[in-house]
Amino acid sequence: ALAARRAAQARALEARKLRPGVKVLFISGFTAAAATAQAPEFVDHLLTKPYRKADLARMVRTILAEGVER
Questions:
Q1: Which has more confidence, 48 or 69?
Q2: Where would I find the beta strands (DSSP E) of 1-70?
Q3: What is the dihedral of CA 10, 16, 19, 25, to 10 degrees?
Q4: Cβ distance 59 to 47 under 8 Å?
Q5: Are 22 and 40 in contact (CB under 8 A)?
Q6: Is 12 exposed, middle or buried (0-12, 13-18, 19+ CB in 10 A)?
Q7: How far lies 42's CA from each of 5, 8, 23, 52, in Å?
Q8: What does DSSP assign to residue 44?
């Protein structure tokens, strides 16, 4: 699990290098506190498992409504 988290953080960092201001949605089986404890700077938005399709759709709409930071 830790290796997967680090890989996700690396992908988020690379995405931000290519597109500064890009929003990142992390999906985790851990609690919100545990998921953000290691690297809170990588977590713009967090969706914890289990979640419903409606939860994912709501989160994506929220992120899109915020726009891109410039």
A1: 48
A2: 25-28, 45-48
A3: 80
A4: yes
A5: no
A6: buried
A7: 10, 9, 9, 23
A8: S
Tell me the pLDDT tens digit for each residue of 11-66. Answer: 888 988 999 888 888 888 877 777 777 666 666 788 889 999 999 999 999 999 98
User: Do you know the residue count of the chain?
Assistant: 70
Question: What gap in Å lies between CA 27 and CA 4, rounded to an integer?
Answer: 12
Vertex 44: Cα angle to 38 and 68 (nearest 5): 150
Helix (H) or strand (E) holding 11: helix 2-18
CB neighbourhood size of 9 (10 A)? 17
